[in-house]
Amino acid sequence: MSKLTATAPCTAHGAVVEQTGEVVAHPLLAQRVTWLASLARELTADLVAARWNPADLEALACGVGPDGRALPAKGWMAMRRLGWGVTSVSGVHVCDRVVRCAQEQAARTLRLALHRRALVAAIVASWPDDPRARTDAEWDALRAVLPDGVTAAQIRNRTRQIAAYLDEHGVSRPI
How far apart are CA 79 and CA 111, in angstroms? Predict the structure, then answer.
């Protein structure tokens, strides 16, 4: 069974400057929230770009930190155990809470990439004669190599994407 992560929208109706008690106007609040979200997005993108290489993806995939302990389920903690920090390129001091948000999002992105890589590898390794109508034996072969928690919809969608790519490039079967 795969885990489902839920997100929810949030509306900020007002803000107050802690030191002065001054109410922040809505346009200024929107500007500050936009700036902070952009900063977090920039930190996340930098971290993903820095770690999007075979060695680092394998380090994350093995699930064990350099100290021999299992990586935590929380992405930001796993990133820290691996020693994968972020630094602000804009020269702005970034509080730890924003850094943790960026590390968590980067970890989720990288873990999703690993999951998709395993899924695609399994589908390609057991490619059927007709991907639109697998035989029982072909389904058994596929299920034997699939990662845990893969749904029928994921199999169907990735199979369609791979088939479309092969059709587009004039290849009859994956290598």
Answer: 11
Q: Would the CA dihedral through 57, 70, 158, 128 be positive or negative?
A: positive
Distance CA 61, CA 116 (A): 12
Q: What is the DSSP letter of 80?
A: H
Reported as a single tens digit per residue, the pLDDT across 126-165 is 888 887 788 899 888 899 999 888 998 999 999 999 989 9
The predicted-structure confidence for 77-116, as pLDDT tens digits, reads as follows 999 999 998 887 677 888 899 999 999 999 999 999 999 9
pTM of the model: 0.80
From CA 42, how far away is CA 32, in angstroms rounded?
A: 15
Q: What is the CA radius of gyration of the chain?
A: 22
Q: How many CB atoms lie within 10 A of CB 101?
A: 20
